[in-house]
Structures are given as C-alpha cells and as structure tokens.
Design a protein that fits this description.
Low-confidence stretches: 1-37
CATH architecture of the largest domain: Orthogonal Bundle
Strand order of the largest sheet: 2-1-3
CATH class of the largest domain: Mainly Alpha
CATH topology of the largest domain: Triger factor/SurA peptide-binding fold
Structural class: mainly alpha
CATH superfamily of the largest domain: Porin chaperone SurA, peptide-binding domain
Distance between the termini: 23 Å
Number of helices: 9
Mean pLDDT: 87
Radius of gyration: 25 Å
Largest sheet: 3 strands, antiparallel
Strand content: 5-15%
Number of domains: 2
Shape: globular
Order of helices and strands: HHEEHHHHHHHE
Number of strands: 3
Helix content: over 70%
Length: about 230
C-alpha cells in the first residue's frame, strides 16, 4: 500500500509538471524500490536481521570454500538460514559475555594453504576465482574467522566442562574402536592405550556437541525468530 500511494503521488506530480522533475522522481522511486527488493529481510532473529543479500553471500562463500558451484535452491537457502540463525544467537552470547576471540592474523596460514591447494599458490588465480564466485576476499576471510570463532566458543563454553570416566572410554573402545580396528587389521593386537587420546577427543567432542544443541534449543525458544518464506523460495 505504501508503494501504491507513492506511485500515485508520482503520477500526479508527473501530470502536473510534465517536466524533468517527473523523470527524476520516477528514477528515485525505482531505485528505492529496487534496493528494497535486493535487501529484503530473509530472517529476523530478535532485533537482528539476515537479509537476502546476506543469505546469497553466505551461500557463495561456503560454495567457494568447498570448491563447488553455489546452489540457490529453497533447500539450500533454508539450510543456510538455519546456520545463520545459530550464528546470530552465538554472536549475541559472545557480545554479552567475555569469551576469547581468535586473532584475525591466524587466518594467514590457513588462506595460504587454501591458495596452495586450490590455485598452486597463485594470488591472481585466487583473486580471479573470488571474483568469478561473486564474492570478495573479505567475505572469504569473514567466513574463516567465524569458523575459528565457533570452534573456540565450543571449546571454552562446552568442552571444558566435559567429564569422562574410565568406564566411558573403555566402553567406547570395546563397542566401537576394537571391532573396527580388528576388522581393518586382522590378527593384530588392539590396545586401548593406542587409542585412548583419540577416544577421549571423540567423546569430548560428541558430548560438547550435545550440550551445544541443548543450549541452542533453549536460547532459540527464548528468542523471536521469523523466517520470511517468500525470500527463501
């Protein structure tokens, strides 16, 4: 209705003046309308928003990192929106609490390794690939920094509180590790001590993930989240 009223007003101005101002006003209105379409809100998370352009950029950057073409299907948009909702909730927790944050300088080795693996270390190929993907290097760095931030948050917030008993470790060894190791290396002895560190890391990660899922469900239940389905199609 607001746009309809603006259109009617511009039409009246155009008929009254029939001069260059009518064209100027029409162009301004068209630009404003176009900007509204580009930056439509895809998701509202409390008082924060995820726009259509945010969603598009996230899909492009994630596809670039995975080395695959971006997909803009409804399924991909919904999956990306869900991941970005969790990101907003965690960012709010980071803002309200004193969690350690990674140093952006830590990204340099990771980016150098990525360029070496995918572009033989050629900077120009790397930049050209970014441009072809429709993203900038800062977009790519932002995703890598978020991944490190998330890992650090999980470690500090959830992994540090995990307590494992010797029974937990032994049970996982007997039920999961030993059968797999014996099947892979028939006739060879399988010792718990050879796998203890790996088992403890695995169990700690699993329990931290469960704790985080529980925390996210709780935070989400207390946050008003609105998905604008017309933007996620």
């Amino acid at each position: 209705m607001k746009h309809a009223r603006q259109s009617a007003l511009l039409a009246k101005v155009g008929r009254a003046s029939a001069g260059p101002w009518a064209l100027v006003l029409s162009l301004v209105f068209t630009a404003l309308t176009s900007a509204t379409v580009i930056d439509r809100i895809a998701v509202s998370v409390g008082n924060r928003v995820i726009t259509a352009s945010d969603l598009d950029r996230q899909i492009r950057v994630a596809a670039f990192l995975d080395g695959v073409p971006p997909q803009f299907t409804a399924a991909r948009k919904h999956a990306t929106a869900e991941a970005m909702i969790e990101q907003k909730l965690i960012q709010l927790e980071l803002t309200n609490s004193r969690y350690p944050l990674p140093d952006p300088a830590e990204l340099v080795p990771a980016i150098d390794l990525f360029k070496k693996q995918h572009f033989q270390g050629d900077q120009q190929q790397y930049l050209s690939a970014l441009a072809a993907a429709g993203i900038g290097e800062e977009d790519f760095k932002e995703l890598l920094l978020w991944q490190r931030t998330l890992l650090l948050f999980i470690q500090v917030r959830f992994e540090t509180g995990v307590q494992l008993s010797s029974e937990d470790v032994d049970q996982y060894f007997q039920n999961t590790v030993r059968p797999a190791a014996e099947a892979a290396h028939p006739g060879q002895p399988v010792s718990l001590e050879d796998y203890r560190d790996q088992i403890e890391r695995t169990l700690t990660g699993q329990r931290a993930d469960k704790e985080m899922d529980t925390w996210l469900r709780d935070v989400r239940s207390r946050t008003e989240i609105i998905l604008h389905e017309e933007v996620l199609k």
